[in-house]
Amino acid sequence: MGTEVTDRITTIRIVIADDHPVARAGFRTLLTTAPDIEVVGEAENGRQAMHMVEELHPDVLVLDMSMPDIEGDEVARRLRAAGLAAPILAFSAYSDDERVFAAVDSGVAGYLLKDEAGEALAAAIRAVARGSRA
Amino acid sequence: MEQADRQDVRSRLQAREQAVAARWLEAIVDTGFVPANLTEVSRQVASWTAQVGDLLAAEAWAPEAARSVGAALGRLHAREAETLAQTLAALGQEILVGMPPGRAAVLQPRLVAILAAIAAGFLQQAQATLLEEQELARDALAVALRRSEARYRAIFQHSALGIALLDMHGRILETNAALHTILGYGAAELRHVPAVGITHPEDVAKTLRFYDEIMSGRRDQGQLVKRYRHQDGQIVYARLSMSLVREDGGEPQFAITLVEDLTARRRAEAERLDAFRGLTARVEAERLRLARELHDGPMQTLLGALGYLGAYERATDQAAARPHLQTARRLVAGVVDMLRTLAGELRPPVLERYGLAAALRSHASEIQAAHPELEMHVDVAPGYRPLPERMELALFRICQEALRNVVDHARARHAWLRLDMEAGGVTLEVRDDGAGFAPPVSLRDLARQGHFGLLSMEERTKAIAGDLTVRSSPGQGTSITVVAPRRRARRAKG
Fold it and tell me: Which residues in chain B touch residue A115, judged by CB atoms under 8 angstroms apart?
């Protein structure tokens, strides 16, 4: 991964929010293999996630949908309401319809199951980032 | 008649006396009555015969003497009208036998009059005796009735069931003390209040239907469960049993209503329901805890491991990325540990393989390790023999629960576990020298005050046919003892 290559590829800056440190560390490590994705911040709860989005203006927020303090879809709503544009990739261990619909309703740009993260995490982040750069 | 003639009559009559008396006696005995003292009776008859003879022969006579003969005869033998008939026949036929016809004709009217007087005296006596007997019978009946009534009154008044007597219009005639207690109204009040007045409004319709069924005679008996309104406003659940009492001719006279108070039973059931709901909630809470633990522990760790494995897979320089593989392996090993611990919590493996005594010791040392400030003592009596798995599990859970309370609440310095076996039973005791508490009295209170631990101990103890005793008071420490029979007791009848 030479600097030339990096210059040619636009880096996608992301904040990853998940209250489980081991899982979060695993995903971050996974993303080190994606040269065009840079993890600029890690949050372990909803408040931290919102704070980091405000401060760091990431391109994508990868958001665990069931964190202890505020529910993921509530975080999404508040960010929307505050006018913070970063698209959100909802990240969840569960795939039941209700959760997915609730997430979509709250304005997330994509929904990914955690156990599929290995294959699809980087691709999903790119897709979400692309989607917002119309 | 001349004096000389009268003398003649007298001597002739005297000569006939024995024969007449014999015939008279025969007549009396003939009518089916054999007197116990035949000698005495024949003496009496002889005397009467003489008297009749005297009366016949006397110059002037008074009917009273003949009447008293009749009365005497009546006293002897009042019930047999035939006695009188035979007497009259005997005397009439025999007494003038051998009398010269002229004299007989003169004597005839007097004989008739004498016989009539005897009859009158007999009848009077018979009447008097009958009256006497009637009175005696009435008295005896009255006494018997009083006794019987007293008995029924006692039954009525002292019955534990509420009883009401109603007339065929549904009006309350009589009530007993038990009913007053059940409804909170006295006898006078109940007489004036209609049944619907003391019935829960929602049960009025079915009560009226029920009354109608019985009172109309369509049914002789029936039962109804309904709610009354006690005088103090509370609801009383009751079972009514109503039956019609008919006169011999079949006409219903009145109705008896028995009222059984079900409230206590319902309250006990409601308490049990409450307590079980609490227990169920606790089980659900326990499940939730487990679900969360699985999620927060093994699940997220495995997700993390997936991430590292994915990183290793995608790495362009796999040799450099080797640490990711190692991390993943370490994380997976960690999950194995977590699951082992969780499974152990769910079902202690020591218990299954090595039995209760070993499981208690193992559990105690785990607690000791986690809580160094609490000194654990385990004492298993040498006479302890393994019990059926079901019992050992129950006892282990009870001990687990008791120790959980000690750890969470007691702030104790020492805790003692004792397992003993004696006289066909097993004893488990968990004792501590901690803060103690005031044990609640009823199951419902246990649930209300959140003592689900005690409740679940109680339930498990019952399941092994045991007895649970909780001794504690604030500042005095706590001791929980379970005593259970080795063999399952034979089910009690009923």
Answer: 303, 306
Amino acid B413: pLDDT: 94
Name the residue facing A118 among B295, B296, B306 (closest C-beta). B306
B142 touches chain A (CB under 8 A): no
Look at B307 and A33 and tell me if their CB atoms are within 8 Å.
no
Fold of the domain built from segment(s) B348-494: Heat Shock Protein 90 (3.30.565)
Torsion sign over Cα A92, A98, A102, A104: positive
pTM, two decimal places: 0.52
For residue range B307-321, what is the model confidence (pLDDT) as tens digits?
999 999 888 888 888
User: In this complex, do B310 and A33 lie within 8 Å of one another by their Cβ atoms?
Assistant: yes
Give the pLDDT score at A6: 47
Q: What is the CATH number of domain B159-261?
A: 3.30.450.20
Q: Tell me, yes or no, if B86 comes closer than 8 A to chain A by beta carbon.
A: no
Q: How far is B247 from B197, CA to CA, in rounded Å?
A: 30
Given CB atoms, is B310 within the 8 Å cutoff of chain A? Answer: yes
Across the interface, do B306 and A115 touch by the CB < 8 Å criterion? yes
What is the count of structural domains for chain A? 1
pLDDT at B256: 92
- CATH number of the structural domain spanning residue A54: 3.40.50.2300
Range of the domain at A17: 3-116+123-132
Counting as low any pLDDT under 70, the low residues of chain B are 1, 31-35, 78-79, 443-444, 446-452, 488-494
User: Chain B contacts of A118, Cβ < 8 Å?
Assistant: 306-307, 309-310, 313
- Render pLDDT for B386-401 as a digit per residue (tens, 0 to 9): 899 889 999 999 999 9
Q: Do A26 and B314 touch (CB under 8 A)?
A: no
